Amino acid sequence: MIHNRSTLAASAAHEVALDCLEAAVDAAAPTAATKSAVSRDGETLTIAGTTYELAEYTDVIVIGGGKAVGGVTRALESMLGDSLSGGHILSKQAVDTQTVQSSMGDHPLPSDKNVAATTEILETVDEADTDTLILFVLTGGASALLSAPAGDLTLNDLQTTTDRLLSGGVPITEINAVRKHLSDLKGGQIARRAAPATVAGVLVSDVVGNDLSTIGSGPSVPDETTYGDAIDVFERYGLAPPPAVHDHLEAGQDGRRPETPFPDDSVFDRVTNHLIADNATALDAAAAVAREASYEPLVLTSRLRGEACEVAKPLVAIAEEATATGTPVEPPAVLLAGGETTVTVRGDGGQGGPNQEFVLSGALAHDGDAVIAAVDTDGEDGSSDVAGAIADTSIIEDRERARDALLANDAGSHLSELEATVETGPTGTNVNDVIVLVVPEATE
């Protein structure tokens, strides 16, 4: 999986870190996750414990979007066979599906391709009736891929807004509160359009805490945010929305546009959402690999968030504490964490992403011999084409230059020169970031 593994495997501790990263991504692979959560026995389809009698429906369709939608859809096609009528999915990568139509879109900024494919998906939803079972597959990346500008908004309005929010270091939950109110499908609106069909959401989480309304901006989930909340996001972070977006949000706040459906809305009467994989799935697999290698694993959290360069410092401090006192775990040990950190871009910025900033900041701050590794499970860290990085303190020979790179948001360039970036290519899954700190024995 890691294309440049031979270059990165500088020690036994590096090998363990790389093994943990690969196991984490493998465990969250959409095909494996689907087969673990979905099964069929005759005409009974079971999704995470909920049963659907296929014979009760005239049409069974699969729709959805996201970076991992292809693997989930292929697994569903294999199970459903001739019972599947069709459908349409949208992914960043080409997907070889048989019955379900597959389109490619752009990420992280939406494009004309996204809008065109999303329009076709919504037309499929609009045709559903009481005899239709919709399997709605939603994974990380769907917020950008599934794009349907609301009202008089344009694609350019969505692109500009998304770019400003991402560059402003706004957490994904708050970005999605805005997205929901600029869209004709997000924030429960696909459930509104699908009613009275039966909708079974099949979700792979890429958000901290697994808030279903945040995954892909919650198209099939009730929305408790409002137009006023979306306006507050811009004010809180000192950002200015495009004029058309400002006018659209104000119209909603003033009651001139309908709100997204709240939890008590009847459109959710025949909607059930099922979570089939998340960050904890990946961390549990990494912990198992560490244990097999005779390292004591300790999962610190699957809810990590904050500025990547700052979040790294307390985590490497825990590694130092483990080495010095055996607390909270006795070395040799592997500390694991997951979540989604952010980067506030300063100036023009440079190359890299949150995981590369985490590793470089951690290596600069660490007073010990731990190996620090971090990747985005989708294989693309921020806007870069690498998954993340792996390093220990010995790799930082010019500390001043490393600090300058970090301050310029150019951690990727610096780590690339040091041959410390992790290259996987797109993995086909997305359950946030995985961080591995391998703490060797003092004599290792």
Automatic annotation (TrEMBL):
SUPFAM superfamilies: GckA/TtuD-like (SSF82544). Residues 17-250 form the MOFRL-associated domain. Keywords: Kinase, Transferase. Transmembrane segments: none annotated. The keyword Transferase applies. Coiled coil: none annotated. GO terms for molecular function: glycerate kinase activity. The keyword Transferase applies. Residues 334-433 form the MOFRL domain. Pfam families: DUF4147, MOFRL. GO terms for cellular component: cytoplasm. This is Glycerate kinase. It comes from Haloarcula taiwanensis.
